[in-house]
Write a structure and sequence with these properties.
Blueprint: H1 3-23, H2 28-40, H3 42-81, H4 89-145, H5 147-197
Length: about 210
């Protein structure tokens, strides 16, 4: 196996180990520190940038390996279909070895690219989960600590609003009583005036 395919295999093994660490049932505190380090460390950011460049070359190797596998498969099929009599065993072995190596390189680079996508998506899903858990814990602590003061303020505000409403109701009752008294006084004065002038007051007609 050539140097670049050896490096690809090493990168694939590193991805597998990293994926196992990410999905391992770690304690929440350890997982939180680990993901904060991976997402905030400038060293990890530089390393991730270099790995992205490496994946570009691996994608090129994947395309080359696929084309080579198709070409070797076509050559093998052509040799089988146009074979005359007994074929050379060494030629068949050589063709089978070339086909095996081409398939191996295709699967190696393909799995490396696929696992990189799975690893990236898994990392960001778990990071979002940790942030959500932190926000939930923060809101829970605020709910536990703050309700006494908040409820006291709310109760005091409601009491003030109730007192204002009661004052308005009292003012309304006073105005209503005054209006009734004024109406009664008006009726009495109107009756006296009609009595003195000799006119009879008909309230229905009025």
């Amino acid at each position: 196996m050539t140097v670049y395919y050896t490096l690809t295999f090493m990168l694939l093994a590193a991805e597998m180990v990293t994926f196992c660490i990410l999905v391992a049932p770690l304690p929440h505190v350890v997982r939180k520190k680990l993901f904060h380090f991976l997402s905030e460390s400038p060293i990890i950011a530089k390393l991730a940038y270099g790995i992205k460049i490496a994946f570009i070359f691996i994608a090129i190797l994947f395309v080359d390996a696929v084309q080579r596998m198709w070409r070797i498969t076509a050559e093998a099929d052509l040799a089988k279909s146009s074979g005359t009599g007994a074929q050379d065993v060494r030629a068949e072995t050589n063709m089978a070895a070339r086909k095996f190596y081409a398939q191996r390189n295709t699967y190696l680079t393909g799995f490396c690219l696929f696992l990189s996508l799975v690893l990236t998506r898994t990392f960001y899903i778990l990071l979002d989960l940790i942030h959500t858990q932190e926000e939930y814990a923060k809101l829970k602590n605020e709910t536990v600590k703050a309700p006494k003061g908040d409820q006291a303020k709310q109760i005091e505000d409601l009491r003030k609003q109730l007192a204002v409403a009661q004052e308005k109701a009292k003012d309304y009752d006073i105005l209503k009583k005054q209006a009734q008294q004024n109406a009664k006084e008006y009726d009495r004065l109107a009756t006296e005036l009609n009595t003195k002038t000799g006119n009879v007051s008909d309230k229905r007609k009025d």
